[in-house]
Every structure is written in structure tokens, then in C-alpha cells.
Amino acid sequence: MSLIGALQYIFQYQFMQHAFEAGTIIAIVAGIMGYLVVLRKTSFAAHAYAEIGFAGAAGSVLLGINPLIGLLSASTVSGLGIAVLGNRASHRDVEIGTILAFALGLGLLFISLYTGYATEAYSILFGEILGISASNVLLTLVVSLIILVAAAFVYRPILFASLDEDVAEAKGMHVLLLGGIFMILLAASVSIAIQVTGVLLIFALMVTPAATAIRLTKKPAYAILISTLIALGATWSGLLIAFYEPYPVSFFIVTIVFAIYLIVRFVRPRM
Amino acid sequence: MGPKRQEGTDTGEIVTARRLAVGYKDKMVWHDANFGIERGEFVAVIGPNGAGKTTLFRMLLGLQKPSGGDLTVFGSKPSRGDSRIGYVPQRHAIDNETNIECVELVHLAYGGGRWGFNLSTRREKDAAMSALKAVGAEDLAHKSLASLSGGELQRVFLAEALVSNPEMLLLDEPLSNLDIRRAIELVEVIGDVVKERKVTAFLVAHDINPLMRYIDKVMYMANGKVATGTPEEVLTSKNLSALYGARVEVLRDSRGHIIIHSRYGGEEVHEEAYHVI
Ligand SMILES: Nc1ncnc2c1ncn2[C@@H]1O[C@H](COP(=O)(O)OP(=O)(O)OP(=O)(O)O)[C@@H](O)[C@H]1O
Ligand SMILES: [Mg+2]
Fold first, then answer.
1. Domain span at residue A253?
2. ipTM reported for the complex surpasses 0.95
3. A221: left (phi over 0), alpha (psi -120 to 50) or beta
4. Cα separation of A114 and A116, whole Å?
């Protein structure tokens, strides 16, 4: 069967259509935001948002609300919190770790209070893009468009402030505000990406593609492009393989990005 | 002070401080500083760690308010974001993971503050290249920041400060981590730029010797006090002893090399162990 044939076959299924639509949008957002995460060294904060999102999602499952809403609100509110605390807050590993652990514990409580315990927990922790509803695809699209427009708007100042904060401040740029905006955008990006990778594999889309890309190019614009292409390629391939194989999509995605990372890291000399 | 003075008139002073004091919350850093720096002057700012050198820069940049006295820069109160000032800070976030080419950083320093999409960057790219050229770093343009040596990196930072054609340069320890040969090379580059462009420059350093050929003034900070003047005026045993409130000897060797020798709390502190200026 040719690839085209395989795709035609797969797209007969609505759940696969939805998965590809959401997966594509999410991979683009994650590929772009991931570059700034790597540059600003804020991957720990990204992970914290995922775990805080877990508590939100678990809480909304318990209340019978759409888990995506719970995810988005919990992590965005915590993003706001870190934004208010200031730029340097994103580097306070100990505080972030403390909050992260509590959020996971809270999520565990919510999940165990819910009768559908195992499956719900599993899909929030490891992703469940194959089950995404049409309305969640739409919500993902809207949130992604907001993130992308905002990111395009603040991209250059954030890039500069990430490289040379003191000069940026001296030039009259509002580095605290920029850092805060970045934190909120990151929190929202993590929330939607969790649908694909789950809480625990969030780095597969938010960190590894960008970490690979910065080894391949010295130009930020190209790095963002490469990071996005890796995230897209891994998501599409993961979905395709998962259609035929009985293993989770997020496993295939994380394996593909990791393989690319290893190849780039060890086969291609740096710079 | 009568009617508002126009910038750079009568005295030609670019920076004027009258009974200037600065501190953080409950802590005074220094006070009662009086100095006037004229257009085109090259000023070395010297003093031990924590003396308030970086704090002076933050005040000139309008990032820190004086806690007393007056400070004027270009004839008015310092204000944040003045494009006439080029700044090389002491701290940098760039490390050996920052795989971004140099020209990109200099380019961002020129237009990175603008929000929104930006496609017309030709003019900015040219400005970035000519700033790199001005510091003899055009070869580094397409090299990664992660791969540069300390001296090369400082040149790129200098280009970053020069890219918007400033009238004043604030260089915070650009010579730290450079060996003596690189330090002298960089000072030559800075000295030439200062002369050619007639910019006023402040340079923080811990060793004044590589600077001696170029500087017009020395600003010496210690013990909450600031002394400003020509090197001959400031760097005398009597002056520095008064500044520290302890016996300080200024020695010059046969080649004019300056060594400051001080005694703290009854304990002999050798110049290397303390600081050599
Ligand atoms: N943000 C701040 N809050 C409180 N105190 C500060 C702050 N920044 C600096 N200080 C204090 O002010 C004093 C002067 O600091 P400054 O950084 O200006 O010193 P410096 O002369 O540049 O020292 P170094 O040679 O180590 O760079 C120090 O005692 C420092 O602890
Ligand atoms: Mg300092």
C-alpha cells in the first residue's frame, strides 16, 4: 500500500482526522515555543506547568468538565502567578519543584476520587490524542492562534532579552513584562501539547525538537523552522504508526524525536 | 540653577554630579560625589568589589534613582532607554550553549526592542556588520557566540553597544577574564573608537595599567566615597589614604606601572591579594 493510499485509508476515520488536525497545530506551537524554552533555559518551568495542568485536568474530570478547560486554566493561572512573581521566579528550582510536587499530589487525589480512575489518569499522564473531540480540536486551534499571534508580536524583544537582559533593560525594554508574557504563553502551549504527549512526556514536543535544532543552525529563524519540522514530522509519523501498531502515540513521538536528537548529537559535529 | 541649561553648553559637560548619593533600601553605597565629565573624555572607574561601580552605571542609565543630590546626563535627568548611551553590562546570559551567530546579537541590539513582525531588516543587518567592523570583529560575524573566546566575546559586546551610534559608552569590566595582551588590544580598540567618534566613555576595571595611555580621568570609589580627577590628581598616596581611611601607598615602577599597596586592619595585604590598579 502506498503512503497516499495509507493516508486515504486512515482519513476515512474521523478520530484520525481530528488527531492529525490537532497534532499539526500543536506541533507548530510546540516547535516554536520550544526554541524560546531552550534559549531561556526554562524547561523546568515547562514541566511544572504540565504537572499543575494535571491537577487542573484531574479536578475537572471529577467535576465533569472538559479536562482541556481544567488544563488550560490551571497552568495559565500558574503561569500568571510566576509572571507576577517576576522573571527570575522561573529559575527558582526549589520553589517550582515544591509546587510541582504538591500539584501532582492534588491531581492524584482528584483522580482517585473519580471512578474511571485508571484510564483517565493514564490518558492525562501519557496523552490521548486519538480520542480528541471535534470541539477540542476547535478549542486547540483558537488557543494556538492566540499563542502564535502573541508570540510573533513579542518574539524579537523576548529573543533579545533572553540573550542580553541587562542591555535590554537599559534600552527601555520591559524585561519583566516580556518574561511574564512568555510564561503565560508557555503555560498555554504546554496545556494544549499535553493532549498529544501527556503530562510526563511534554519534553518530547516542547524541548527535544528545539534542543536538536539549535545544534543544527546558528540562525534563530532557521532553528525555529527546524524545531517545528521535527515536531511535525514526529507527530505525523507517530500518529501513522500508532494507527497500525497497538502502542501509544506518545511513545512513538518521544522515540522519534529522541532518535533524531541522538543522530544530530553524535553523528554531526557541532557548529 | 537659573534657566534650564542646554545640553553640552557652557561647561561642555555630558555628565554632572553634585553631592550625589546612592544606596539600596537601608544601605548607602556612596555619597557626596561631585564630578563633571566632558564630551569625548575617557574615564576609568576603579574600586574594590561592592564599591558601587555598577551602581553608578545603573544610575547613568536611569535604572536606579539617586538617593540624594543631583545627576544630569546630556543636560537632563537620566531616563531609561536613552539611545545615546551604549552599554556593556558586567553580566551576560551567553554561555557555551548559545549557538547563535554574533551578527544576530548585534542586529537584535539595534532593532530587537521593536514589537511586532519585522521583515525589513536590511538596514539593520548593515548597521550590525559595520559595528562589528568598527571593533575589528567582522570575521566573527557568522561565528557562533558559543564558540568565542572571552576576548572575542567582549569585542562582540562592544559592537553591540556601538550599533546604535551612541554618544556615551558605559563598559562594565570588559577586560575581566582577558589576558594582558588581549586586554591591551581591546583597550586600543576602545580608545580608537572613543577618539574617532568623540564618544564619552566610562570603563570599569580592576587594573588601571592597560588603560593609562588612553584615559583622561579616573574615578576612584572606595569606602562610600568617590574621588574623580586626572590620574595624577587621584592616584596619590595622600588621596587614596584619605579615601580608604587607612594607609595606602601608590607606587610606580621604573616603567610607570602603578601598584597600590594598602594595609587593612593591621594586616598587610599584598597588591595581588587585594587589588592592583
Ligand atoms: N539590587 C541590589 N539590592 C541591594 N543591594 C545591592 C543591589 N545591587 C548592588 N547592591 C549592593 O550595592 C553595593 C554596590 O554594588 P555594585 O554592584 O555597584 O558594586 P561594584 O563596584 O560594581 O562591584 P563589583 O566590582 O563586584 O562588580 C554592593 O554592596 C552590593 O551588595
Ligand atoms: Mg560591578
1. 3-266
2. no
3. alpha
4. 6
Determine, for residues A168 and B112 on separate chains, whether the beta-carbon distance falls below 8 Å: yes
Q: What percent helix, strand, coil does chain A show, rounded to 5?
A: 85, 0, 15
* Domains: count for chain A: 1
**Does domain B1-84+166-229 correspond to CATH entry 3.40.50.300?**
yes
Is A271 inside any structural domain? no
Q: Which amino acid is at A258?
A: F
DSSP state of B268: E
Q: Which site among B115, B125, B140, B143 would you substitute to test the A interface, given the most A Cβ atoms closer than 10 Å to its Cβ?
A: B115
The CATH number given to whatever domain includes residue A67 is: 1.10.3470.10
Cβ atoms < 10 Å from Cβ of A197: 31
* DSSP 8-class letter at B76: B
Distance CA A199, CA A51 (A): 6
Dihedrals φ, ψ of B43, to 5°?
-115, 125
Q: Which three cell numbers stand for residue B223?
A: 569606602
Q: What are phi and psi of B98, to 5 degrees?
A: -80, 80
d(CA A166, CA A80): 23
> Given CB atoms, is B116 within the 8 Å cutoff of chain A?
yes
Residue type (1 letter), B15: V
| Angle made by CA atoms B76, B81, B86, in degrees to the nearest 5 | 90
CB within 8 Å of A40: residues ≥ 6 apart: A90, A162, A182
Residues 6+ apart with CB under 8 A from A94: none
> What are the C-alpha distances in Å from B95 to residues A34, A171, B86, B100, B152?
19, 22, 22, 11, 13
Of residues A157, A166, A218, nearest to B112 (C-beta): A157
- Is B247 near chain A, with CB under 8 Å? no
Domain contains A52? yes
**Backbone phi and psi for residue A138, each to the nearest 5 degrees, phi listed first:** -65, -45
Answer whether B98 sits within 8 Å of A157, measured CB to CB.
Answer: no
Digits of tens for pLDDT over chain B (277 positions)?
Answer: 444 444 444 458 999 999 999 999 888 999 999 999 999 999 999 988 999 999 999 999 999 999 999 999 999 999 999 999 999 999 998 988 899 999 999 999 987 777 766 655 788 889 999 999 999 999 999 999 999 999 999 999 999 999 999 999 999 999 988 888 899 999 999 999 999 999 999 999 988 888 999 999 999 998 899 999 998 888 888 877 877 777 778 888 777 788 877 765 444 444 433 344 4
